[in-house]
Amino acid sequence: MNKIRLLRGKISLVTAFFLAFMVFGIGCISWATFNIWSQSNYSVDATPTQNSIAKATPDKPLYSVYPVDGDNIGSLTIPALKQKLPIIQGTGDNDLKKGIGHFSQSVLPGEKDNCVLSGHRDTVFSKIGNLKIGDKLIVKTSAGTFTYEVNGTRIVHQDDKTVIVPTASAILTLTTCYPFNFIGDAPDRYIVSASLIKSK
User: Fold this and answer.
1) Cα atoms in the Cβ-side hemisphere of radius 13 Å centred on 144
2) How far apart are the C-alpha atoms of 38 and 34, rounded to whole Å?
3) C-beta pairs of 83-92 under 8 Å, 24+ apart in sequence
4) Which residues pair with 195 in a beta bridge?
């Protein structure tokens, strides 16, 4: 009789563990599905916020007024991935829910130096790993249309600050969490570097 009770106790414990594991798994899948669904349908408004960025003229810089966090400053078109995505000033949670975030301590698109754009690996930058050297990245803002050419990719640790260092020429840096299929806070970052080849 004691053996039967002990066996039933073990079965109950295994059943409870199995049910808890199932609930946890369903919860993870539901959260991921909701996150992808809620952030994957972006409507791109390529018209930047008019009160934050002024048109460039020969006697002043590209951007006479720096944009405010949350402003739509333009769009990024990636022909190789058939994507057109909004660029939002700032890299906070709310900014990244709207599209690609511009790191506010970097220069704006088209300017000489390092322009850094960040995005979530499971939404806007889910296909970024497919980019190859020579692919074009087209950024459109109120200051013009800037075409960059991918010249390299790399993987760095999340604490690597070389991603945001100043550069001697106009560079566009795309950054997202890596590995792409990692569950939780990913330890690394996937970096795409591109050089400015045309402005108009």
Assistant:
1) 16
2) 6
3) 83/124, 83/127, 84/44, 84/46, 85/42, 85/44, 85/119, 85/124, 86/42, 86/44, 86/45, 86/46, 87/117, 87/139, 87/141, 89/52, 91/118
4) 149, 171
Q: Identify the active-site residue in 28, 102, 115, 120.
A: 120
Q: The whole model's pTM is what? A: 0.70
At residue 146, the 3 state secondary structure works out as: strand
Residues 28, 102, 157, 177: which is the catalytic one? 177
Q: Quote the CA–CA distance of 89 and 99 in Å, as a whole number.
A: 10
Tokens of 132: 């190859």
pLDDT digits (tens, 9 = 90+) for 125-178: 999 999 999 999 999 998 999 999 999 999 999 889 888 898 999 999 999 999
Please give the pLDDT value at position 162: 87
- Quick one: which of 115, 121, 120, 85 has its CA closest to 102? 115
Q: Point out which residues pair with 108 in neighbouring strands.
A: none
Q: Are the beta carbons of 66 and 131 closer than 8 angstroms?
A: no
Q: Distance between CA 77 and CA 96 in Å, rounded?
A: 17
pLDDT at 54 over 60: no
Of 125, 191, 196, nearest to 163 by C-alpha is: 191
User: What DSSP character marks residue 129?
Assistant: G
> Is residue 76's pLDDT more than 50?
yes
120 is catalytic: yes
Pair type for strands 144-157 and 171-178: unpaired
